[in-house]
Specification:
Layout: H1 2-14, H2 17-25, E1 33-38, E2 51-60, E3 67-76, E4 80-87, E5 90-97, E6 111-115, H3 125-134, E7 147-149, E8 152-154
Antiparallel strand pairs: 1-2, 2-3, 3-4, 4-5, 5-6, 7-8
Amino acid sequence: MASTLSGIIVASAVMLVLFVHVAVAQPNDWPSLRFHFTLKRSSMKVHGETDFSMYANPILSDSDDKVLYDVFASFTDDTTLYNYTLIDGAAYASTTPFSSSLSDKDKVTPSVDCVDSESGTLPAINAIVTAINKATAVSSVKGAGSDAISGFHCRKLFPER
């Protein structure tokens, strides 16, 4: 499932190539990022959601030669709030049940668990950023269905809403 999810989200991440390449040129000025995902397969839903965003904040190493992103995502369903956080490479999942009933408010027991950051539950943002940073510009595109626009080669993968 993780490889399928990675394949689906790569198209969304491609749009960040130029943005991240600018950041590479200025290593002390890494941007915070918002990744918005639209999953096209209903089987890939995350807590029932096909549209969601993940927020990433850059953390530079002491020597400024490496950057990892701390990441946050939040989901709700009818009875629970789910928060996923990646801090210093450690992934955490918290769940907070909630109810509109006053009598249930004392029964709410939030929980926090460490999770495998490569579990495939959510897209691996640091792996996406690494892949984008390693991407190279295409010098030419040949074949049917490709469009060349002012030196950039793109093909629309998803229709706009």
